[in-house]
Write a structure and sequence with these properties.
three-stranded antiparallel sheet; 2 domains; mainly alpha; two-stranded antiparallel ribbon; about 475 residues; single chain
Length: about 475
């Protein structure tokens, strides 16, 4: 690989990480949290920020609805016919139509996608007409309104605060959350010289190889632990520098909570290291691609539950948001912050939520692995099928599907965290510490012991072999 290619690929990967985490996921997460809380609490939600269209544009949109509905119906019928024919070929082994199976598969994908897009467009057009030209986009304009509010709001600094530490706190809280994505693999290895070809399913492929992560480290997961633990320093020094007793108490709580749950967080992942035999995140993803997802191992499933609980406590989210408990500490270490400084804390918290979803997907849910997708394309083979459905795909399409599927897994974990936030009450501080030291810590140690016994006795290898044969 030449220096120019290496430099360009690194820059593109860094830009991708920033766009995904800060530019896309964090704003959408702000919207999703408000939207989901509104649905749970039966409120209006983020539906006031809107762009108003002129009456002529509304009239044109209204006239376009009927053609879109007709297009949806026609493409839907073609997609259904193609689906029936492809299913018949897969089950019976014969083609009922004088059309090649590959053409039917492409028709199913193309017309199915067109039908879905036309139906979505019809619904969006109808929503605009019903709202008399107000384009609210389900409240997606609210993150932009929030950003403008943070930018133009007064940046208040307490007179007796430590000015340097007060300004550095939000930066220290945000940067480590973004830096954790440096070792996150978004897909398998990209073979640049063969990007538009169908690669063989197995074997080595010569040419330029580009890892689909910013940095490939031998201690990838330990790097995430290291940078994640520094993020809490931002909350601690912000509480100290604010010259406010509530802020100080919030900073102390944040530091003690991090120290407690960081221990449990590491121990819950030791069984995963023992199974995957590596600390590299890309190796963990590849192991699950070749065998089975970690969640299908009972001990790793238990480890996932403990890891997810400890990780939510690390991110200081409900029900573990003791450092910023409004009923006790006004706003905790955030009490004296406003404007973009508060916005950086806000953004850092949401980036941590995205990072937690990414790590959980990599360690326990196969990372970028997609069922039935291999390096050469899709291969749908089930026991009741006479012949499977094989769909060869170019290498770049396989990589794109892996990236999209990995992002979808992250979205699922984000949604789950939002459900927890708006469903559970806040713990008391003694309950928080009791859960860590008397609950999660002994259970994680027991999980390590059981995993060691299973590995030494050969039970784990037999179980993995059984899953491979399924």
């Amino acid at each position: 690989m030449t220096t120019e290619v290496l430099l360009l690929s690194s820059i593109l990967k860094i830009v991708f990480v920033l766009v995904v985490t800060v530019g896309a996921f964090a704003p959408v997460l702000i919207w999703a949290e408000r939207r989901q809380s509104a649905m749970i609490q039966d409120r209006l939600g983020p539906s006031r920020a809107a762009i108003v269209l002129p009456p002529s544009a509304v009239a044109f949109i209204d006239k376009a609805r009927l053609p879109m509905w007709r297009g949806f119906a026609l493409t839907g019928i073609v997609a259904i016919v193609a689906l029936v024919a492809v299913t018949w070929v897969a089950v019976r082994g014969t083609n009922p139509l004088p059309i090649p199976t590959a053409t039917l598969t492409k028709a199913l994908i193309g017309f199915g996608a067109a039908s879905v897009l036309l139906r979505i467009g019809y619904g969006v057009h109808g929503m605009i007409v019903r709202n008399q030209g107000k384009v609210m986009v389900l409240g997606l304009l609210h993150p932009l309104a929030d950003a403008l509010k943070f930018i133009f709001k007064e940046d208040f600094v307490p007179p007796k605060s430590d000015k340097f530490l007060f300004a550095a706190g939000p930066i220290i809280a945000l940067i480590p959350a973004i830096a954790a994505f440096a070792v996150i693999p978004f897909a398998s290895t990209l073979h640049l010289d063969h990007w538009n070809q169908v690669l063989p399913r197995t074997g080595e492929v010569a040419g330029t190889i580009i890892p689909m992560q910013v940095a490939s480290l031998d201690v990838g997961i330990l790097f995430i632990f290291a940078v994640a633990s520094t993020g809490i320093i931002g909350a601690a020094i912000s509480g100290y520098a604010s010259d406010n007793k509530f802020s100080l108490l919030g900073g102390i709580r944040a530091a003690s909570q991090m120290v407690s749950y960081e221990v449990v967080l590491g121990l819950t992942l030791v069984p995963a290291f023992m199974v995957y035999r590596s600390l590299r995140l890309e190796d963990m993803a590849m192991w699950q691609h070749e065998h089975s997802w970690g969640i299908f191992n009972p001990l790793l499933a238990l480890g996932f539950i403990m890891f997810f609980t400890a990780a939510i406590a690390e991110t200081k989210r409900v029900p573990f948001d003791l450092p910023e408990g409004e009923s006790e500490l006004v706003g905790g270490y955030l009490t004296e912050y406003s404007g973009m400084k508060f916005g950086m804390f806000f953004m850092g918290e949401f980036v941590e939520v995205v990072a937690l979803g990414a790590i959980a997907a990599i360690l326990f849910f196969g990372a970028w692995d997609v069922p039935f997708l291999y390096r050469d394309g899709f291969d749908f083979r089930l026991p009741f099928m006479a012949s499977g459905i094989v769909v060869p795909l170019a290498h770049w399409i396989v990589i794109a599907i892996q990236v999209l599927f990995f992002l979808l897994k992250i979205v699922v974990f984000i949604w789950f965290q939002l459900m927890i936030r708006w469903s559970l009450p806040r713990f008391r501080y003694d309950q928080l510490m009791k859960l860590c030291w008397k609950g999660l810590l002994p259970l994680s140690l027991l999980n390590i012991l059981l995993m060691g016994v299973f590995i030494l006795s050969g039970v784990l290898d037999k179980y993995v072999g059984l899953l491979d044969r399924l």
